[in-house]
Amino acid sequence: MDEWGQLGACLKALADEKGAGFLRREAWATYQELAKRSDVDPGLARLALTTLLADPGGWIEGHGADAEGLESYLEDECFLSARAAARMAQMYSGLFSAENMETWNKRRGEGLRAFCSKPQELCVEACSVWDNGSGSITCSFSAAVQVEVADDSKLQRVFASELDRAPFIPEREVRSTLQELLQSELQGDFDEYVNAERYYEPYVYDYAENFQYVVDGFCDMYGLKPMRIESTCDQTDFEPDPYPLPW
Fold it and tell me: Global pTM?
């Protein structure tokens, strides 16, 4: 494979990982990825940056598979020599071919579909300190929540902007994102529960009932159905604040 073919292969690999939109939208980031590679000629990496800024993918989308027309476009827009324009036009015609675009479009949202196809477990934990001014109690709570997707349209709306940025977002990132969202809901509610009364010590061993309401609201918002919740909680004994000795 010559250096032009290697450039095309590297751009194809990037599109397979991040989507064709990444190449069209993030010319500088694409160049940085190419510049890291020892198998891509630095001059061709810079040429890719220059030509990607002209959005050859958009030109092909609007004009079809016309390599000669794309060659003329790149020559005019990027001030390329006839030879360079011809080689880049040939490469981009193959890269943004109808076959490749169809494959990438079919893969859009594949991680989200995989997430929706089976039960998932979201693991979260929270810690909060109750302090009445003379001492404190440290409280903790952790839970494993098994859920199933009940309404995937809600998840589609939640991840719409993410799918525009990264159409092949993997299943693990969908799960991680939802886990972080549930974690945030739990931490906020747990802080309120633990610090509800300034002069009465908290009793976190009853918090599991509160968490059920947190999970129910979360699942309703994101189109999920709670299947099982396993949780543990703990709190330390009251720890008086140390006072300095008078001498």
Answer: 0.82
Distance CA 129, CA 195 (A): 8
Domain end position, chosen among 75, 107, 139:
107
| Rounded-to-integer distance, Cα 86 and Cα 99, Å | 21
Q: Are residues 131 and 207 in the same domain?
A: yes
Among residues 71, 88, 107, which one ends one of the domains?
107
Closest CA to 139 of 56, 41, 205: 205
Residue 125 belongs to what H/E stretch?
strand 120-131
CA distance 178 to 109: 16
pLDDT tens per residue, range 172-210: 999 999 999 999 999 999 999 999 998 899 999 999 999
Burial of 143 (0-12, 13-18, 19+ CB in 10 A): buried
Q: Taking Cα atoms as reference points, which of 65, 71, 57 lies closest to residue 26?
A: 57
For residues 96 and 187, state if they share a domain: no
CA dist., res. 92 & res. 80, Å (int): 15
- Give yes or no: residues 27 and 78 share one domain: yes
